[in-house]
Amino acid sequence: MIGLSDRVIISCNGKSWFVRASDGKLGTDLGLVDLGQLVGKEPGDVIHTHSGKEFLIRLPRSTDFFEYAKRSTAPMLPRDIGLVIGLTGMNKHDHVLDAGTGSGISAIFFAGVAAHVTSYERRAESAEQARMTISEAGIQNLEIINGDILKEARMYDVVHLDLGLTHDHIIHAHSVLKPGGYLACYTPFFEQMALAYDGSKGMFGECASYECIMRDMDRGERGTRPSTRVCHSGYITIMRK
Q1: pLDDT band at 84 (very low <50, low <70, confident <90, very high)
Q2: Quick check: helix, strand or coil at residue 192?
Q3: Which residues contact 203 (CB under 8 A, 6 or more apart)?
Q4: CA 55 to CA 141: how far, in whole Å?
Q5: Residues 6+ positions from 23 with CB-CB distance below 8 Å
Q6: pLDDT, tens digit, for every residue of 14-33?
Q7: Which of 92, 71, 63 lies closest to 158 in space, CA to CA?
Q8: 191: helix, coil or strand?
């Protein structure tokens, strides 16, 4: 049942809005929506505009928070987050260490898979914004720490780094990884990818780097072809202890 202040998606005629159940109103091109109607409803129910248009209620998922949540930084794309999850075998038994949090999007995706996620963010403003987003998502197994990951001493199954990478980060990640655990480094440039790859030598038994590419398909009356939009996003280096 949807309660006061809960976040939901409402949809009509192929359009969607990310809203909060409240005593407010939402103006749309399909009519005025009284958001108080949401309280007490269930996903799959409908509410109506003042003119009688039906809006379907859906619960938001991680992908919706990527699309609609307030951002303090540019988050990793869902496809790249999926690669980290798949290449590390992240699962419901894992305790995951993440840094830097940024807008919290990656950590939200990880929390949907892992037993628990601890995410470090050095910028206080970004950490607070991420906490607000996580609260709205109703996630209980995710902790945001405003601080330096190099001070973390607990042991983890998976470590994920999306920050200004240094060799110290590689050394520290190795020290807090359980045997058989994985380190995943997301980096935007060749030089940082090389730092991650070269830094694994002598510590990690396995290491591989990948370019993150996914092409959309454009389909129209004339035919179907790959989109001309940029399909590259960054690089992921996966190491196993």
Answers
A1: very high
A2: helix
A3: 170, 171, 174, 239, 241
A4: 31
A5: 35, 36
A6: 999 999 898 899 999 999 99
A7: 92
A8: helix
SS (H, E, C) 130-175: HHHHHHHHCCCCEEEEECCHHHCCCCEEEEEECCCCCHHHHHHHHH
Q: What is the DSSP string of 4-71?
A: TT-EEEEEETTEEEEEE-SS-EEEETTEEEEGGGGTT--TT-EEEBTT--EEEEE---HHHHHHHS--
For residue 37, give both structure tokens: 């109607």
pTM summary value: 0.87
| Overall size of the chain counted in residues | 241
Residue 46 · residue 8 · CB < 8 Å: no
**Tokens, residue 83:** 């690669």
Query: Which amino acid is it at 206?
Result: E
